[in-house]
Amino acid sequence: MKIKILNIISLYLFLCFIFPSYVNFQEFENDSLSSKTFEELRQIFYTLKDKGEIENGKKVALYTLEKAKVEKNNRIIVGCYIRLCRVSYANSYKALGYLNSGMEIAEANDYKDLAAGINFYRGIVYTDLNDYDAAIKYYLKGLKYFKGNDDYMYYTTLRKIGNINLRIRRSEEAVEIFKEIIEYEKNKETVSSSYISALYSLSVAYSAIGELDSTSMINKKGYNFALNNNEFSHLRFTHSEAGVQFLKGNHSASKDSLKKVIPFLKSSNDSPNLSIAYFYMGMMAEKELEKIQYFKKVDSIFEVDKFVLPSFWTAFEELKNYYKNKEDLKNQLHYTEKLLTIDTLLNTEYINITETLNKEYNIPKLQEEKEFLIEKLSEENKGFKTKNYVLILISIIFLFFVGLLYVTKKRSKHRFQKIIQSLESDAEERKTSESDYKKSDRTIPINEEAVEEILNRLEKFEKNKEFLKPKLTLHTLSKDLNTNNKYMSMIINKYKLKSFKNYVNDLRVDYIISRLYKEEKMRNFTIEAIAEEAGFSSTVTFTRAFTKKTGLNVSYFIKKIKI
Hints:
Distance between the termini: 44 Å
Order of helices and strands: HHHHHHHHHHHHHHHHHHHHHHHHHHHHH
CATH topology of the domain at 9-169: Serine Threonine Protein Phosphatase 5, Tetratricopeptide repeat
CATH class of the domain at 9-169: Mainly Alpha
Strand content: under 5%
Oligomer: single chain
Number of helices: 29
CATH architecture of the domain at 9-169: Alpha Horseshoe
């Protein structure tokens, strides 16, 4: 159990650390940029970005993009899309859109270095989206080019892959990655913060797989190097080593280290690691009151930041039992409910870990205890018994609707992301998928030559967006394609696997989704105007078709894509 505690805490300690030039550039006009070279514009952009002037940086990048388009300088165009991504991280989907635009040009012109850079930044964006599989996929694509061509980007990318491996608990793979980085960094003339950071990462990776002696060895080396480095605090190694000494039973050494670390964590506003330090101190406290005081500090951080680790369960259970022994039913119930809240949070953040936790801590029994305490408190306040039952009922109904709202929101978010991801897919992939007709098993009395001819006309009908014509009917479409209603209906049913009405509505909805994704100005249209753009006869018909096709409300989709 102790090894497990260190593995979890040291891993989070690391994650909190990694996942937590001068120009007087005021308001400017395009005229002030027109005399600048592309290199000067690039330098201005990065100076602004480094100063945190994101909006001004974006203006410079957009100006440079337009200038490069006029001069047909494709390399600069791709570079501008990358810069626009780097100042658009607040909107992950917009950042990906910029990268996709750049990749299309990079691949068309065989700019392998720029394509690798785009994949690197895709990895960053997908990491922000917590889509770690996609992040690793794109990092690896970039890594193939960087190896042998760009050492800095190779090892920077490798470090990011190692960080993700720690996050998703592939600690053995992380160990090998950080060993490779350290081997590279140690050959440099001076000891850099990158080298010290890699040592820290390796320390965390070792502790995550339970190799405490190796963790201590790395902590000692990293501590000595960090003493002479202003960019990486040696106290982070002290914090890591405190956990090792705690698990080895060397409580005196662990306490001494934590007393040095706690002021640093407070001044750094590093609440997560401060909470970990308080947890260690509480676990090692000899007096009950001292233990409870430290665990209450862990609780106070949880109240503000909702930061919790699986190992913290012990602290909150101690708090519950402390008040149980004092027959303080109110606080006992408070910490019983808090334990159930923590169980919910852990099941979201640490799925694999909480499966083990649930074997050790009987959650159903905790639920029973909660119900018992509620009942007992109710009995002690008979005058409010009816009121309490009403409140409990309201709470249950509220939780039900909150849960329902949460599930609905999660499903809507997933559907939205799926639509956006399909829009971001390669144009060639979309072209292939659109031309591959599905077939039902139903046979139709039409010769193959006639079917092929009608399908070709339908493909042209789709390509020319003739489905946008208002008041389009099966009869008018059949007439336009030189066939009859019966044949047209049978072919759409067999090859499109839907009715004529649904076929046309789906085409219109897909068209509107594509335009909303590409055209920012269209997102400000009224729903009535959007429906008219798609050829629908009424707003009601459009909204029903949109919801049927996507599972989302039109207003929700527009609101999300504006973000």
